[in-house]
C-alpha cells in the first residue's frame, strides 16, 4: 500500500468509532444533557461484544450483547441523571471507571490478561468491493472496511435526517434550548432527554464493537483510550450538528492517521506527529468558541 | 420559581451523589488495605514463619507473563518451604500498597510495578519506605534507582533485579532475519502473505515508552538483525516507535499495519496491551509478530514468531533461597540475570512450528534453530550487545546493515 492510500485508509479506520460515538452523542447535546459517559458506553460495548463472541462464537450475539450492554449503561445514566436529577458529571465519571473495573474483574476471574478471539480472523470481516478497491484514491476510502464502518458513515446522514427532518428531532432541540417552554407546550421533557441519551448509548455500543471485535478480534482493558472524550470534543466543535461534528471526527481520524503514517519518514521526531490531533482539537475549539462569541455579541446578547 | 426549585433540587442531589461516591471510594480504600492485612493469622511470634509478598503491576496477576511468573514462583516457594505468600494487586497506587506490606512486616516484598520513588527516595517529604521498614527486604525489577550519585548503594535492604534483555532480544533479531529470508520455504501452504525479501527487507519495533527498559529490547533487536544481515550481505530497514503507550491496542495495531505495509514481515511489540493489538494485526495481514515478557506464543497461534521472556520466577526463587539459607544479607544489591541463567531468553517456538507443515520447511526450521542455539552460546561472550539498562549508549554506526528510519 502506498503512503497516500494508507493515510486515507487509516483515516477512515480511526474516524469510524469516533463518528459512531458522535452521531448518537449529538442528541444528548441537543437535549442539553452533558453525557461524558460516551467513553464508558463505548468501552462496555467493546467488552460485552468480545466476551460474548469469545463464549458463543456468534458475531450476531456479540453485536446484540455489545449494544445491549451500552443501552444498560445508557439506562443507568438516564435514570440517575434525568429521572433522579443526579449530577451527570459524577454519574458519567462513575460509568467510565466502572468499565475497566468490570472488565478487569471478569478477566481476572477468567485468568486472562485480555480477551482474544483466536477463532476469528478480522480480515474476513472486511468488505472488499470488487472494482472499487483498485481505484487509487477512492479505493482505500470506500473499500476494505468492516460493516459497522459503513454503518457509521451512513449513520451521519440518518442522524441528520432524524435530527432536522423529524418531529422528534425538533422536540429534542426544543427541550435542550428551553426546557420550561417545552414543558409549557406539554412535552414530556424527561422522555426526550432519555431517548436522546439512549440513542447515544446505542451508537457508542456500536463504536465499541467496531473498535474491538470487528477490527481487532480483541479486547484489552482501557482500549477506548480517550476516544469517547474526543467524540465529546467533536460534538462541541460541531455544536451538535451530526454532519459538522462528524467532520471534526474525520479530521481527528486524519490527524491520527498522519501521525502514524508519517512517523516512518520522520524518524525520532515522530513523537511530534502524535501531538497533531490534540493541537487540532484545541485550535478548532478555540475558533468555534471565538466565532460563537462574536455571533452572540453582534446579536446584542453580550453576556448571554 | 420552578427553576429555582430545580436548581435547589439538583444541588441537593449533587451533594447526595458526591457523598455516595465518597463513601464508595472510602469503602474501596478500606477493602484494599484490609486485603493487605489479611492472611497473617497463622504467624505466631514465637514460631517465626517467613512471609513473602508479591506486588503486581497494572497488568495483574493473570497476565500470563511477567507478573504471573513471579506469583507462581512465590507460590512454589511457599509450598516448598511452608512460607506464607501474599499476592497484592494494588488498587490505591503502588506506594500505599508497599507501605502496608512494610507495616505488616513481610520478610521479602517483590515489587513488580515500575514505581520506586516512594520506596527509594520517599515522596511528599516522607522518609523512604526502605528506611522506614529496614527489616523488610525490598526487591525491585527492571531498573536500579537504588544508588547515590557516586554510585554507592543507597539502601542495603533493596535488591534491584535486571535482565540481560539485550541478549535475548539479539536472538529475536537474528531469528527474525532468518525467518524473513526463508519465509516462503518455511510457511509454504500456510495462510500468510509475506513480502518477498527481494523487494523489501524490513523489521519493526513498537515500544510503550521511551525508557531504558524499553530501548534495551530495541537495541538488542537491531544488533541481532545486523548480525545476520551482515552474514547474508543484505540491508534491513528498521521502523521503530517508542511512544505507543501501553493501552491503545487499536492504535498499536495501525502502527504495526504501516510497518507491515512497508514490507516488514516481523514486528516486535514491547508495549503491554498494545502488543496484543500488534499480534492481532499480524494475523489480519498474515505476517508475524514477536511478543514480550511471558510466553504469549499461543495468543494468535501461527502468527506469533516467539516471545522474549522475562522469567521473573527465577529471581524470586533465588532470592527466597538466599533468605532461607541466611545468605540474603550478603547478596549483591544489583542482581543481573543473563541469558545463561535461564531467566531471560526466547520461547521454544513450538507454536510457530505447528504452522510449518512441509518437510522442506521443517528441515529449514531445524537449520535456523541450530543457528540460534549456536548464537546462544556466543552472546555475552563472543558477541557483545549494548545494554541500555546499564546506561550503555547505542551507536547506530556499529550496525551498518540496519537502516534505522
UniProtKB/TrEMBL annotation, chain A:
<keyword id="KW-0812">Transmembrane</keyword>
<feature type="transmembrane region" description="Helical">
    <location>
        <begin position="216"/>
        <end position="235"/>
    </location>
</feature>
<dbReference type="Pfam" id="PF02653">
    <property type="entry name" value="BPD_transp_2"/>
</dbReference>
<dbReference type="GO" id="GO:0005886">
    <property type="term" value="C:plasma membrane"/>
</dbReference>
<feature type="transmembrane region" description="Helical">
    <location>
        <begin position="12"/>
        <end position="29"/>
    </location>
</feature>
<keyword id="KW-1003">Cell membrane</keyword>
<feature type="transmembrane region" description="Helical">
    <location>
        <begin position="88"/>
        <end position="108"/>
    </location>
</feature>
<feature type="transmembrane region" description="Helical">
    <location>
        <begin position="61"/>
        <end position="81"/>
    </location>
</feature>
<dbReference type="InterPro" id="IPR001851">
    <property type="entry name" value="ABC_transp_permease"/>
</dbReference>
<feature type="transmembrane region" description="Helical">
    <location>
        <begin position="36"/>
        <end position="55"/>
    </location>
</feature>
<protein>
    <submittedName>
        <fullName>ABC transporter permease</fullName>
    </submittedName>
</protein>
<feature type="transmembrane region" description="Helical">
    <location>
        <begin position="191"/>
        <end position="210"/>
    </location>
</feature>
<feature type="transmembrane region" description="Helical">
    <location>
        <begin position="272"/>
        <end position="290"/>
    </location>
</feature>
<keyword id="KW-1133">Transmembrane helix</keyword>
<dbReference type="GO" id="GO:0022857">
    <property type="term" value="F:transmembrane transporter activity"/>
</dbReference>
<feature type="transmembrane region" description="Helical">
    <location>
        <begin position="147"/>
        <end position="164"/>
    </location>
</feature>
<keyword id="KW-0472">Membrane</keyword>
<feature type="transmembrane region" description="Helical">
    <location>
        <begin position="247"/>
        <end position="266"/>
    </location>
</feature>
